[in-house]
Amino acid sequence: RMVRDLAGELGKQVRLEVDGGDVELDREMIEMIRDPLTHMVRNAVDHGIESPENRQRAGKAPAGLLKVSARQAGNQILIEICDDGRG
């Protein structure tokens, strides 16, 4: 919902892909990563993904792609956020 609302405010189109729904995080871990994760997602939508018009001029689809994935590696959780924007 945050991505959709932010994209609407900025006049952008963003397709969100989330992978790693099977990764389990405890409440304390979720609280620790909530703010940094929110900040990174906001930055990707705000500064990374271009407007539909600029994307089309660059030969891209009008909607940008934002991927958020999580996976477990031993006793660590790896979270990756990437977009197909200009940055």
H and E order: HEHHEE
Q: Regions with pLDDT < 50 over 5+ consecutive residues? A: none
Strand numbers in spatial order across the main sheet: 1-2-3
Mean pLDDT: 93
* Measured distance between first and last alpha carbons: 23 Å
Q: How many H/I helical runs? A: 3
What share of residues are in beta strands? Answer: 25-35%
- Overall geometric form: elongated
State the helical fraction: 40-55%
Number of DSSP strands? 3
> What Rg do the Cα atoms give?
14 Å
* Main sheet specs: 3 strands, mixed
Describe the structure.
43% of the residues lie in helices and 28% in strands. It has 87 residues and is an alpha+beta fold. Strands 1-2-3 form a 3-stranded mixed beta sheet, with helices on one face. β2 and β3 form a beta hairpin. α1 packs parallel to α2 (27-48). The chain is elongated. The mean pLDDT is 93.
How is the secondary structure organized here?
Elements: H1 2-10, E1 14-19, H2 27-48, H3 52-57, E2 64-73, E3 76-83
Parallel strand pairs: 1-2
Antiparallel strand pairs: 2-3
Relevant terms:
43% helix, 87 residues, 3 helices, alpha+beta, 3-stranded mixed beta sheet
Short description:
This protein is about 45% helix and about 30% strand.
